[in-house]
C-alpha cells in the first residue's frame, strides 16, 4: 500500500456523525494519519483506524451488578406481580401498609 499523504481520502469513524464516513487526512505522523477531517460534518479528530469507541455501559458489568443486587436484597429480584412471602404474611396478620404518597400537583377544586 502506498504512503498516506495530506488530503487523501480514507474511511474512519466520525465521533460527531457516529458512523464510518469519508475523511480527509489533515495530519501525518510517522507515515500514518494522525488527524482527519470528516467530509460530511467537517469535524477534526484523531484517526481511529475505523474503530468505534466502546459503549459507555459494559453489558457484562451491568449483569454482574444486577447479580450482586439480587444477593443483597432478594425481594427486589422478584417480579412486581409476585408478592414476597413476608409481605403476604404481614398482610394476613392485619398489618396495614402506609398509604402511597401523592405525586404531581394537587388539583384545584
The gross shape turns out to be elongated
- Series of secondary-structure elements, N-terminal to C-terminal: EEEEHHH
Q: What integer value in Å does the Rg equal?
A: 28 Å
Number of strand segments:
4
Largest sheet: 4 strands, antiparallel
Distance between the termini: 78 Å
Overall residue-averaged pLDDT value: 78
SSE inventory with pairings:
Elements: E1 9-14, E2 19-29, E3 32-38, E4 44-46, H1 59-72, H2 74-77, H3 85-92
Antiparallel strand pairs: 1-2, 2-3, 3-4
Description:
There is one protein chain. This protein is α+β, with helices and mostly antiparallel strands and 109 residues long. Among the domains are: 9-46; 59-90, no CATH class. It contains three helices and four strands, in the order ββββααα. The chain has a four-stranded antiparallel sheet, with no helix packed on it. The longest helix is centred in the middle third of the chain and has 14 residues, at 59-72. It is elongated. Residues 80-85 have low confidence and may be disordered.
Amino acid at each position: 500500500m502506498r504512503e498516506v499523504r495530506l488530503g487523501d481520502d480514507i474511511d474512519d469513524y466520525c465521533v460527531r456523525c457516529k458512523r464510518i464516513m469519508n475523511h480527509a487526512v489533515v495530519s501525518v505522523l510517522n507515515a500514518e494519519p494522525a488527524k482527519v477531517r470528516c467530509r460530511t460534518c467537517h469535524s477534526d479528530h484523531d484517526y481511529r483506524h475505523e474503530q468505534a469507541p466502546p459503549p459507555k455501559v459494559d453489558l457484562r458489568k451491568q449483569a454482574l451488578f444486577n447479580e450482586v443486587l439480587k444477593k443483597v436484597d432478594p425481594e427486589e429480584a422478584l417480579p412486581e406481580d409476585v408478592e414476597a412471602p413476608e409481605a403476604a404474611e404481614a398482610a394476613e396478620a392485619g398489618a396495614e401498609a402506609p398509604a402511597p404518597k401523592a405525586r404531581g400537583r394537587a388539583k384545584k377544586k
